[in-house]
Amino acid sequence: MSIVRKRSIFQNAWVVPDLEEAITVWTKDLGVGPFFLRELYGIRLSFFGKPGELNARIATSQAGPVQIELIEPRGENGGVFGLPNRQTVPRFHHVACWSNDFAADDTHYKAEGFVEALSGGGPGARFAYFDTTHAYGCMLEIVEVQEKKRATYARLSQVCENWDGCSPVRSFTDIEDQ
C-alpha cells in the first residue's frame, strides 16, 4: 500500500480571453479583489519536454483561503495556457499545490502516468504543471515551497482581506518583498 501525500491546494486558476473583463466580473459580481497584475514575456520554460516561451498577463487575488489566478495568454501560441479554437469564454485551467519535496512529487506524478506539460524555475523556486485533465478535469501545478513566495502570497491575502473596493487592479510588485 502506498502512502498518500496530503496536498495543500492554495490556488485555482482560469484562462481568460480578456483579463480586464475577467477582473471586472470577479470584482463586481463576486467581490474578489484587488487583483495584482504581472506581465510575463519571453520567459524560457519547458513545454511538454521541449524548450518554449511563456507569454501571458496574469492577475492574482485572494478569495478567503483560496488564491484566484486569471491568465490571459499572449501571442500566437499561448503554450499550455492556449485558448483552443479562439475560445471566447473563461475556462478553468488548474489547481496549484505546495510541494515540500519537489523531486519526489515530480517523480510521483510522472510514475502515475501524468505528462509534464510545463516546468520551470530554478533551485528553490521550481514548479511544474501536469496534464491531469482525464483524472481531475483540469491540470495540476506543483510549486516548490519557498518562504519568500509564501511571504508575498501572505501579503497578497492580507491586502485582499482588507480590500475596500478601491483600485481593483494593482501591480504585483506592490506586494513583492523589496
Q: Would you mind describing this structure in some detail?
A:
This protein has 178 residues and is α/β, with parallel strands linked by helices. The chain has one domain (15-167): 2,3-Dihydroxybiphenyl 1,2-Dioxygenase, domain 1. The protein is 23% helix and 40% strand. It has an eight-stranded mixed beta barrel. A hairpin with a 6-residue loop joins strand 6 and strand 7.
| Fourth CATH level, the homologous superfamily | 2,3-Dihydroxybiphenyl 1,2-Dioxygenase, domain 1
Round the Cα radius of gyration to an integer and report it. 16 Å
CATH class: Alpha Beta
User: Helix/strand/pairing class, anyone?
Assistant: alpha/beta
Tally of helical runs: 4
Instruction: Give the CATH topology.
Output: 2,3-Dihydroxybiphenyl 1,2-Dioxygenase, domain 1
Number of strands: 9
Features:
178 residues, alpha/beta, 2,3-Dihydroxybiphenyl 1,2-Dioxygenase, domain 1, eight-stranded mixed β-barrel
